[in-house]
Every structure is written in C-alpha cells, then in structure tokens.
Write a structure and sequence with these properties.
With 346 residues, this protein is mostly helical. It is 76% helix and 0% strand. It has one domain: ABC transporter involved in vitamin B12 uptake, BtuC (Orthogonal Bundle). About 4% of the residues have low confidence.
C-alpha cells in the first residue's frame, strides 16, 4: 500500500474515531447528573418507549442541552476552520475576528429595542427566538464587511487584520458597556451579562428546532467549499490560476462562517476559544486538507462543548457553571500549548 493510501486511511480512521467518541459521549453525558439514569433508560427514550414522567423530563432536559451543544459546537468549529483558511492566519476565528462579539451586540440591541426596554419572563425566555438570529446575523455581517474592507482598502497584512478586528471587538464591547451604563436597568444588565457567559441551558425546544433546521444547509455550505478553501489557503495566485476569484470567494466564505457563528451565538451566548481551538486540534490529527479538516473540526468542537457543559453542570451540582466559563479555563492553556508547538511551522 502506497504512502498516500496510508495517509487517506489514517484520516478516515481518525474521523471514524471522532464520530464514535461523539456517539458514545451523547448517552454518557445524558446519564450523568443529580437525577440518576442508565444507558438503557436513554436508549428506551430514544426508541420511543414510555418512561415515568419525571424520568422522561430529566432525560429530555439533558438530551436537549447535549443536542444543542453538538449543533452549536459543529457550527463554531466549522466556522473557525473556514476563517483560518480564508485569512491564512492560525489566529483567525469568528471570535478573534470580532464576529462573535458583533453577534452578541446584535442580540443585546434586539433585546433592548425589540421589547421596549422592559424585562419580563417572556423576554428572558426568548419566546420569539427568530428575532435574535436576524439581529445577530446583521451585526455579524457588518463586522464581516468591515474586515474585508480593511483587508482590501487598507491593504493590511493578515496579522494586522487580526489586530484591527480585535480592536473592533473592543469597540462593540464599549458600545454594549455604554448601553448597560446609560440605558438598561439592573435586571436587564444581569440578563445580558448572563447571556454572554455562554450557557447551553438557555436554549429551549423552539431554539433546538431552529438550530436543527438550519444546521443541515449551513453544514452543506461548509462542506461544499472544501476544495476552494484548500486553494485559497495556499494563496490567491494559485486560486486565480485554478479559476477561483479570491475576493468573491473570501466574502462568500466569511459570510457563511458569520451565519453559522450568529446562529450559534444568538441562542447560547459567546463561547470563547471553541472556534479557535478545535481547528488546531483537528489539523494536528487529520492534516490541512479541508475535506477532512472541516468534519474533524466540527466533531472535535462538539465533543469539547458537550464535555465542558457536562463538567459545568456536575462539578458543583446542584449549581451549574456555564459552558463558556469552563471552556475559557480549559481552552486558554490548551491553546497556548498548541500555539507554542506549532509556532515554528507557522
């Protein structure tokens, strides 16, 4: 067997292992918690068997969090891999490019303007969640356009582009701080601050349905770009000679990544490091070909998010630590290690 065949085989085995880990992690995480259930109970529920009402409710609340985590993690992991390829920068991600912060500001503005500045139980539970992704996506697209304008008009290097994007993200945070200081009352401030922690428990049945419905087309858009991402990651000259317009594709790919990020952010809040960390781990496992890198990044991101959420809701039970906080504690040192190991190659 040739060396190239061995490489392809190892990549497929790696993807199969990741899929198996994710498949096992879903019932495993569902069985962990204050209310004790078994694997058999979980499979009975998934197969449609009638369970006692209290057991069914406890299982569904956990499964809903896990399904949301799997979808949100996949959206963010794929968006991170796309951003790193499009900008040819290992530090690029929807988070470092300010797309996540822009989406968060969009949600905050929608919560303020859309409900007349009042905080009610209906408002906190996101009873009309379709308003939020529209606002989040609008602000994310504005940030995307600003990034591309800085790249083309100002002629910034990839490193300078990331720094300017971070500056814009601080601007969004400043605007949000002004709104909190001058406009919002204490309950509204607490609601928005808690939303920005990144918590899978905020998503209900309606939010899960919207995420599941939009996940399929967004994932297909991710995967259909794999060959073009390989070309643009090499360089614009190679892309031109292969018949790809780098400028148009860069805007299209970034817009798709922004859409996935906005959908994930608007329902669960900001999840730092996830979209930056997962592609680096995937690249170390399956290499740089986006045919394998994209699904690997998506599965690794889902695994990390489900594991972080499970740890957060069980470590100090009955108290729950939001998944975004757990990811920040775990992701920061792991990302530093990966960056130090890969600094010479980059």
């Amino acid at each position: 067997m040739s060396s190239s065949s061995n490489i392809f085989l190892r990549r497929y085995i790696a993807l199969a292992v990741l899929a198996t880990i994710l498949f096992i992690l879903i019932p495993l995480a569902s069985s962990i918690g204050l209310y004790r259930v078994t694997f058999l109970d979980i499979y009975k529920m998934l197969l449609g068997y009638n369970l006692p009402e209290d057991e069914f409710i406890a299982l569904w609340i956990r499964l809903r969090r896990i399904f949301v985590g799997a979808i949100v993690g996949a959206l963010l992991g794929g968006a991170g891999a796309i951003a790193q390829a499009v900008f040819r920068n290992p530090l690029a991600s929807p988070f470092t490019l300010g797309i996540s912060q822009a989406a968060a500001l969009g949600v905050a503005i929608a919560l303020i303007a859309g409900y007349g500045g009042t905080a009610t139980q209906w408002f906190i539970q996101f009873a009309r969640p379709y308003i939020l992704p529209i606002a989040a996506f609008t602000l994310a697209i504005i940030q995307t356009v600003l990034i591309l304008l800085l790249a083309y008009r100002a002629g910034l290097t990839p490193q300078a582009l990331v720094l300017s994007s971070i500056a814009l993200s601080f601007l969004y945070q400043a605007i949000l701080a002004v709104l909190q200081y001058l406009v919002l009352n204490e309950l509204q401030i607490a609601t928005i601050v808690f939303w920005m922690f990144g918590d899978l428990g905020k998503a209900g049945n309606t939010e899960l349905l919207i995420l599941a419905t939009t996940f399929i087309p967004v994932t297909l858009a991710y995967m259909l770009m794999n060959l073009d991402l390989d070309l643009i990651a090499i360089g614009d000259e190679i892309a031109y000679t292969s018949g790809l317009n780098p400028k148009k594709f860069r805007f299209f790919a970034t817009a798709i990544a922004a859409l996935g990020t906005a959908l994930a952010t608007c329902f669960v809040g900001v999840l730092a490091f996830l979209c930056l960390l997962a592609p680096h781990i995937a690249r170390a496992i399956v290499g740089s070909s986006h045919r394998y890198l994209l699904p690997a990044s998506m599965m690794i991101s889902s695994i990390l998010l489900i594991a972080a959420d499970t740890f957060g809701r069980t470590a100090l039970s009955p108290r729950t630590i939001p998944a975004g906080i757990v990811l920040s504690f775990l992701g920061a040192p792991l990302l530093i290690v990966l960056l130090l190991r890969g600094s010479r190659r980059w």
